[in-house]
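Q:
My hope is that you can spare some time for a protein that puzzles me. I hope you can help me see how the letters and the tokens relate. Thank you; the sequence and its tokens follow:
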Amino acid sequence: MYHKGESRGVRPSGRGLGAKPPIVLASHTSIRYSIGGEWRFFTDMTQKIGLLGSDNSHVERFSEILNVADHPSYWADSGARVSVIWGPDPERTREGAANGQIPIIADSPEQVIAECDMVFVISRDAGLHLGYAKHAIAAGKPLFVDKPLTQTPDQARELISLSRKAGIPMTSFSTLRYGSDAIAFGEGIETAGAIRYASYMGPAARNSPHGGVLFYAIHSVELMQHFHGHDVTSVRAVESPPGADRSNINVTCTYADGTLVSIALIGDGVYLFYMMAVGQEGIVEVPGTARNYAADAESRARAESAKTQVVRESEDKPRADHYELGMRQILGVLRGERPGIADEEMLGSIQLCAAIEESLQSGKAIDPRSL
């Protein structure tokens, strides 16, 4: 779960599932990592990133940060550049390459691997991620797998296991957890006392062609895990209207320590991410869109002599900077400078999303750890 002092969302790795010791390095201009006991180096050069998959808008978002010098998000001293891309749709691949100023359009995944130092798997369809990732793992290239890690828990277990056996840096996450909104929420949680209830809301569509509810629910699920951990023992999901083209889903997650978290997955409503937690000493809310509610809550608390406060209101709402800050985390992990997401947490997010769908189908509460 979220640990005090993680101002940039950097978490203890909690490496597991047979992981090897951490990577050793100096800086982004002199980086070494171990492949089967053999040390390999990046030295005094701009690291070349290869993209496998081109249908995702993250082609543009990531390339704007690393390639497009006149873009507001450009990171001039990143030491990295997106240099090659491959995707199964030639037209979309050409479009993404042009928008992101990516110089090489590869003819195959194998060409991407040969032309790059690091690999980003970014196709929308998580069912393709394991197959794409195997190219990078076999070549011993540091690997980022865009969210969701995989479509199924078994695929996630295999991808994690192969990466750890190969000794390569590998991580996967939604960049939302590293944005200023999430940082502010974490700082608020630190002052709100023990959190026993929280609520997260985000967009998701059960009938998404990119893997169903998992494709976008993963954002809200990862935010919950980031702040509360992954020790969820029960997931119960309800959809309304059931099976409709446009529906909303409410997910109730029960933790082993009794903490209760609700996730609202909105397929029929505004596109918005929202986080709220109730602690024994305060309430934290991001984004603070309900300014009147915040003022009223403080007034009621004073009137009732309760030790309750709204930790965050709507003033000075941070801009959406999760892609930029997320990219710093991605490169930090692949360079060995920062710990990655714990293996158990990467797997746990896929298990929890699978539990949501299973609960919707069965009408029962599901223990995600069993999947």
Observations:
- The first helix runs from residue 58 to 66.
- The chain has two domains: 25-168, 177-319+351-370.
- The CA atoms of residues 74 and 144 lie 20 Å apart.
- The mean pLDDT is 85.
